[in-house]
Every structure is written in C-alpha cells, then in structure tokens.
Amino acid sequence: MDNEILKGGGNHPENDAQYAGLTVNAGIEQPPSINPYLKRRKRRQLSVNDYVEGILKGDTAVLGQAVTLIESVAPEHQSMAQEVIERCLPHAGRSRRIGITGVPGAGKSTSIDVFGIHVLGRGGKLAVLAIDPSSERSKGSILGDKTRMEKLAVHPRAFIRPSPSAGSLGGVARKTRETIVLCEAAGYDTVFVETVGVGQSETAVHSMVDYFLLIQLAGTGDELQGIKRGIMEMADGIVINKADGDNVDRANLAAAQFRNALHLFPMPPSGVVPEVIPYSGYYELNIDKVWDMIDRYFAAVDENGYFEQRRRWQERYWMRATIDEQLRAHFYNNPDVAALLEQKEREVMHARQSSFNAAADVLNFYFNVTGRP
Ligand code: GDP
C-alpha cells in the first residue's frame, strides 16, 4: 500500500488509481449536538446547611447532589459529606432496608420495577440503590440504571441511584450505606439495595439491609449445584422468578428443592426459616405473596428483637470496616510507601528478598514516617 496516500489528508487508500471500483468521499463535519452558544448555568455551591435542609424537606435534587458529594473523592467534599451524614443520622434509620440479589438475567430489574410499584401502592417513598462491583472495572455502573426500571423511573415517589463506580468494593459499599442514611432522612421508608449475585458484593449488601432476598431461576433440575452455600445462608427469603407459561411446573419443583435444602441448614439467627416462593416479575404473578412473606418476616423480627440486634451488629461491622478502609488508604496513598512497595515487589519477584522481610521493611518504613502505633 502506498504510504503517501495514507498520509494525504482526507484521502483513503481505496482512492488510489490501482483500485478501479468504489471511491471514498470526504466526510462532513457533524454539527455539535449541544448548542455551543448556550451558557452552562453554574450550579450554586451548597453549604452543609443547604444540603441538610433540602434533604429533610425531601428535595430530590438536593438529595441527588448530596449523594454525588458522598461519591466524590475530593477530600473537601468528603469532609463536607461526613458533616451532612452526621446531621442526617438522627433522622435516619426508619426504613425497611431490603437487599435484592440474583445472577444477571435472573430478572432483578424487572422484579424491582414491579416490587417497587407494589410497595408504593401502599403509600410511602422508595429508594433504589445498587452495589455493582463490575462497575469498578467498566467505569460505568449497570445496576440501578433508571432505564431498566421503566415504571419506577417516572414515579414521583421513587428515587433511583446507580451504583457508585469508583474505588474498592469496601469503598463502594460504604458510599451506598451512607446514601441509605440520606435517603431515610429524606423520608424514604423503603430502600432496595440491588447487587449481582456473583461474588463478594452480597456480603457487603447483607451487612446493610434488614432483609436479604435471593432471586433464583428454575434450571435443569440441579439448580442447587451452582449456588454458593454462603449466599443461601445469607438469604432471608428465596423467590423463584419466571414462574409463568410452561415454566410453572419447573419453578414449583425448584421451590420444593430449595425448601428441602433450607431445612438442612441450622436455624438462622433471625429465628425465621426462609420461605421460598415462585413468582413471575414479568407477568406480575404472586407479587403479593412475595410481599406477604416479607411482611411476615418483619413482623417476626420486630417481635423477637432481631431487627434491632441486626442493626446494632451492622453498626459494629461498619465501624470496623471504616477503620479498615481508612488504614489501608492511609498506607497505600502515601507516595513514599508506594514507591518502596514497588521496589520491594521487584526484589521479591527476583527472589532477592523473602516476602516476610520485604513486608517488614515496608511496614517499618511506614510506621517510622507515620509514628509507631
Ligand atoms: P437482571 O439482569 O437480573 O436485572 O434481569 P432482567 O430484569 O433484565 O431480566 C432478564 C430477562 O428475563 C429479560 O429479558 C426479562 O424480560 C426476562 N424476565 C424477567 N422477569 C421475567 C419473568 O417473570 N418471566 C419471564 N418469562 N421472563 C422474565
């Protein structure tokens, strides 16, 4: 191929005389999709007071901005966010927090849309949040996307927020948890936290919700095989989706298998044996049965004190998780530590130093620059 042709401005190799056939015409500049003469209105900088007042009034625009503040990595935003959270805390805590998990395709978004409308039919306000670890990699969060929940997206009493995308799973989970506090202060009395049932994110969600719902599908008869025991143990209720059309029998069979499997587990600390209910999110079948099950659970744990106890345990968990996160950040964000770490990694990779000695060197360096504990 002739390089000269390639270099020749808008020319294409196909335009060379040796190609007798088609030629490529020069493209035209596309007009910008946004009017360039339109001045962007600068958002007024809100004070902590503005945020708190707006949130307590239930102003969704301010709530949305406050969540953005929580998600920001800028230290000044972080400290402001913490103040806002602190002041919202006395107004928080009065919601039912429900975690919803299931593998991709299980029907989470379809179901959340329908469950959400069902809950809103009883009054109150619903917030839908998400924890999506894959969004760390793709930098775009999938869960909680408004377009996947068509009915809720346009409902005046629903607030949908996609998963925070930056940082570690611990960081993402903390932000979602802090968002719950703001939503509750804004009067949302039901909070859904959605997650993909594929890894550690369920543990994070489990640690912030009062009820953990596992969405399953009827498979080929060995559905229990692929499910991690840990996730089943976390579930407070299991629902088998897509129990419609000619799938009803299989869904019922799967439900029976799950019930049998659950009987082999020890009694959960809630004192409530998880129920298993087949339903159809798409055809809106048995939605009231699913919700009756959840109501029964809340009635039982209100009565036996587990609701409060679980929240206290979660507080303790989050205190520890926050300490963990900040210690790690303090360590890994120190540029001198990072440089030494990199150097030591090379030493270890080349077998010039043992991993234990290298770790000790890095830690000693860290303790020396930050003060020994
Ligand atoms: P997600 O990935 O878990 O959020 O799953 P979606 O809600 O996007 O659903 C995945 C696919 O399953 C979509 O094509 C839905 O239309 C379909 N689906 C969801 N719920 C049902 C149901 O109850 N019955 C049937 N037959 N299909 C469903």
Overview features:
binds guanosine-5'-diphosphate, alpha/beta, 2 domains, disordered N terminus, 373 residues, 7 strands, Rossmann fold
Overall description:
With 373 residues, this protein is α/β, with parallel strands linked by helices. It folds into two domains: 212 residues, P-loop containing nucleotide triphosphate hydrolases (Rossmann fold), CATH 3.40.50.300; 51 residues, no CATH class. Helix content is 49%, strand content 10%. The protein contains 15 helices and seven strands. Strands 3-2-4-1-5-6-7 form a seven-stranded parallel sheet, with helices on both faces. Bound molecules: guanosine-5'-diphosphate.
In short:
With 373 residues, the chain is α/β, with parallel strands linked by helices. It is 49% helix and 10% strand.
Structural class: alpha/beta
**Helix run count:** 15
Mean pLDDT: 86
Largest sheet features: 7 strands, parallel
Instruction: List low-confidence stretches.
Output: 1-9, 136-141
Instruction: Walk across the major sheet and give the strand order.
Output: 3-2-4-1-5-6-7
Number of strands: 7
At the third CATH level, what is the topology name of the largest domain? Rossmann fold
- Backbone CA Rg: 26 Å
The percent of residues in helical segments reads 40-55%
